[in-house]
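Action item from last meeting closed. Structure (236 res):
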């Protein structure tokens, strides 16, 4: 287990030590940053690690605050730069020229935010779910509140949760095609719905919205800064 303390907080330093002491056998990685600690857990070890995090007296993370999916496709690339951003396509993940690894083992991750009321400290847990068919174990047996959180991650990212008792869409329609938060999902969607007066019902039709560009095409001058170059400052 790798650990490097950058927190500067005695409570979090104690947390890092406890994590290293009790989870070394599970092959976890501890990442530290000012004011926060992240525990990266191998997918196969997720449930035993979560049980230890909840039940061990030195950890006692009895509350799951949030659980969400993350899509790391094109993570760290600079296409969002306004001046040099791409001017075509739906987004980064559809541009094959960017050489994205859409099915890499670390494309998708599930992130859990935990709270220990007993020790008054927080922890982020990350587990990579894979790329082609992302899947991790459900943690409902550890924290019951994960139920709807996991359904949301399934709906928006397509991440499957092994052992979930009722893994259905929760935000999109039951007949929705695709997963909106994937970076290879078109911003305009796959279909659009409208009311058909002839049929007397709502129908789904092909998308008629033109593809939108993610970056602004025009950079406008801001009048609040007019005159700055000549040393003139405007006061409100």
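Sequence:
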């Amino acid at each position: 287990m790798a650990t490097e303390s950058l927190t500067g907080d005695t409570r979090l330093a104690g947390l890092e030590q406890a994590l290293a002491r009790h989870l070394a056998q599970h092959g976890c990685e501890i990442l530290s940053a000012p004011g926060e600690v992240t525990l990266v857990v191998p997918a196969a070890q997720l449930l035993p690690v979560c049980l230890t995090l909840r039940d061990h007296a030195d950890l006692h993370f009895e509350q799951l605050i949030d659980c969400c999916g993350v899509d790391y496709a094109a993570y760290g690339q600079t296409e969002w730069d306004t001046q040099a951003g791409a001017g075509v396509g739906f987004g980064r993940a559809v541009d094959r020229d960017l050489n994205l690894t859409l099915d890499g083992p670390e494309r998708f991750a599930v992130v859990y935010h935990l709270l220990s009321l007993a020790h008054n400290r927080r922890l982020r847990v990350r587990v990579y779910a894979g790329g082609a068919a992302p899947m991790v174990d459900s943690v409902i047996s550890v924290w019951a509140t994960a139920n709807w959180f996991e359904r949301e991650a399934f709906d928006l990212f397509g991440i499957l949760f092994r052992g979930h008792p009722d893994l259905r869409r929760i935000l999109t329609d039951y007949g929705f095609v695709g997963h909106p938060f994937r970076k290879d999902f078109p911003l305009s969607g796959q279909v659009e719905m409208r009311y058909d007066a002839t049929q007397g019902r709502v129908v789904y039709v092909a998308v008629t919205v033109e593809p939108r560009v993610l970056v602004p095409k025009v950079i406008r001058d801001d009048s609040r800064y007019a005159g700055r170059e000549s040393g003139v400052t405007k006061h409100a």
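Note appended to the action item: The longest helix spans residues 10-23.
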